[in-house]
Amino acid sequence: MMRTRPLKVALLGCGVVGSEVTRIMTTHADDLAARIGAPVELAGIAVRRPDKVREGVPAELVTTDATALVKRGDIDVVIEVIGGIEPARTLITTAFEHGASVVSANKALVAADGAALHAAAEANGADLYYEAAVAGAIPLVRPLRESLAGDKVNRVLGIVNGTTNFILDKMDSTGAGYSEALDEATALGYAEADPTADVEGFDAAAKAAILAGIAFHTRVTIDDVHREGLTEVTAADIASAKRMGCTVKLLAICERAADGASVTARVHPAMIPLTHPLASVREAYNAVFVEAEAAGQLMFYGPGAGGAPTASAVLGDLVAVCRNKLAGATGPGESAYTRLPVSPMGAVTTRYHISLDVADKPGVLAQVANIFADHGVSIDTVRQQGKDGEASLVIVTHRAADAALSSTVGALRELDTVRGVASIMRVEGE
Amino acid sequence: MMRTRPLKVALLGCGVVGSEVTRIMTTHADDLAARIGAPVELAGIAVRRPDKVREGVPAELVTTDATALVKRGDIDVVIEVIGGIEPARTLITTAFEHGASVVSANKALVAADGAALHAAAEANGADLYYEAAVAGAIPLVRPLRESLAGDKVNRVLGIVNGTTNFILDKMDSTGAGYSEALDEATALGYAEADPTADVEGFDAAAKAAILAGIAFHTRVTIDDVHREGLTEVTAADIASAKRMGCTVKLLAICERAADGASVTARVHPAMIPLTHPLASVREAYNAVFVEAEAAGQLMFYGPGAGGAPTASAVLGDLVAVCRNKLAGATGPGESAYTRLPVSPMGAVTTRYHISLDVADKPGVLAQVANIFADHGVSIDTVRQQGKDGEASLVIVTHRAADAALSSTVGALRELDTVRGVASIMRVEGE
Question: Is A303 on the interface with B (CB under 8 A)?
Answer without folding.
Answer: yes
